[in-house]
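Cross-check.
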Amino acid sequence: MSLSLFNPFTDLIFDEQFCFLTGDLTTEKMTVYPEWLMDHFKFGADRIEMMDKSKSYTYADLQLPCSPRVKKAFEALEEKIQAAYEKGYEGMAALDEQLLFLWTGRMVYGMLYYEMRYESSRRMRLRENFDLSATLRERFGNFHLMMQSIIEPVSFVGQKPWSIAVFPLKYSADIFSYRDDTVNLLFQFGVNGFGFIACLQDNGVIGEKQKEILEKMKGHVLHPLQFEELFARFHYSDYILQYKPEYNIENTATGITIEAVPVTANENRPVFGFWDEETFAQLLTNYWSVYGIQRGDIIQFQKPFLSFLENAYTKDFILPENIDLPF
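Predicted model, tokenized:
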């Protein structure tokens, strides 16, 4: 007999009386964003919009229904993350990647949960059925199963389902940079001392694509502009990825193992589609505009594409201290 675990994407169950992770009836709740993080950077009262921009919440108001054992497990995880955070880059880099996966996953899944609840309620008001494509049901269901590893005998073997990169980063004190993409399961986090990027369900293929620049970065403390460019590279790589990540999932009475199937191309279709510099420039503009850098600065006729990571001619890594823009 196999292990039976809750999957909210089977019947699209996102009611607040059910634990988001186990489906157990509960009256307990936990915040989507860690309380210590909101307190430290004082963003709990700030507002965050849903994807269609018609609804917003304060960060502190975003709460997930959870069973007592789920709450206890995430509290224990937060203690480990906070202890590592206080040690800066060295502490975060020493963490097991699965802990970072679960920590980032809590926030990404939390926002996904709210998007599901909001869209379900909106459709109900319009007297329409709420549904998801088979592709999204599978992607989000697999992600939910992976998150259950924090409390259930769910383990990862062989190739991991994610790409996670942690690196030293220089920001002005008390600046906090955060982005997520709930549909594509991406996460970016940066503070003074370190940053990291997580693709939570790419089977490691995007990290492999960016391996060369990640190697060049080693030993350097990134400038925020470089951090934004690196995330843009990860984000755009996810956009042009042409294969759906697949998993070998073995389910027995004693537990579930998840192995990411390596992404391989066939002769007619590469792993990644064409890298269009016009499209990438537009994406990069969204990240760099706060520095006054516009699309016309990034891509110009008969000039190399603007980069703060690599010299356009030699492809050498650009030293952060040579970037004359504020932190």
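The chain has eleven helices and eleven strands. Residues 157-327 form one domain. Passed to J.P. for a second look.
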